[in-house]
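Reopening: Glycosyltransferase family 2 protein still failing for me.
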Amino acid sequence: MKKLISICIPTYNRCAKVKLAIESALSVKSELIDIIVMDNYSPDNTWSEINKLDDSRLKVFRQGKNIGFCGNLLDVVSKAETDFVFLLSDDDLINPKYVEKIIEEGLLDSCATGIIYGSIFNTHKNKFYSEYSNSLYNRLSGISEVAVKHSYMSGMILNKKYIDMKLLYQLYQCEDKLMYPHEVMVLSILQQNKDIITISDICCYQGVPGFSHIIDETVYYYYTERVYLIKQYIRITNYIYEEGVERDTIKKNIAHLATVILLNSSPLIWGKGHKKIIHRLKYYIAINSIRKMSFKFNLNIIRVLILKVLNLRF
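Support: Ran it again with your exact input. Result attached.
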């Protein structure tokens, strides 16, 4: 019997959390799935504990050394032998009924399907982290809807046939740090003219993050790292997409992301006290200095601020 989808779980040093994540995946009532776990050379007892789990659908692997989040994610996806992969963070829980439903409804049977997004619910805050309607998008509308708008890895279902893994590994080697490799996977799939499906059902439940090797490695919330991310998205977009409507649409999304960051009040981004103002100004200047980004960025700031004022008035 051919498997349809692999639930891919990269993990590092989160033994208790990853066991819960794996158990949630194993609760899916289907023999058409694989669960693949890649341990990034954790110093805790992750490796010994996950090897105690007994299920023919479960495949566990361990790196010979810590290769960082990006390399570990690429490797766990590469291990998948199915057409589709479901990405799951090691501190989140899958909704088994969601996976069972998309299998039963045949959403994984079509080669036209490139990406499937479901809603993500945060049980600790008792609210949706991201919420979708039931929709189907073609290439251009899909680019507008999802490109660089879904940085949260868990819940992404991607058609592996259309992920340019060679490109991903090349970027992993060439970039100082590839901050959101799963978003680059999405960009490579969007280029293939495949359907993007969004589903209102909850695909996974957001956990409480523990120690994160990503944060430790890049401190990626800080404003200088946000500037790096914006520049990286632009570099990769220019590399993947030729000049035209699609590239321009993605850059509009990037400008919107840059605006959201600017208007975010988190001290993780700006620091505290008087430094917040200085750092915001430096960020604003840095984004405006990016070639062909200034107009889109400032236009987006004006649009967002107008919408905020209108919402306050009405």
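The chain has a mean pLDDT of 92. If you still see a failure, please send the error message rather than a screenshot.
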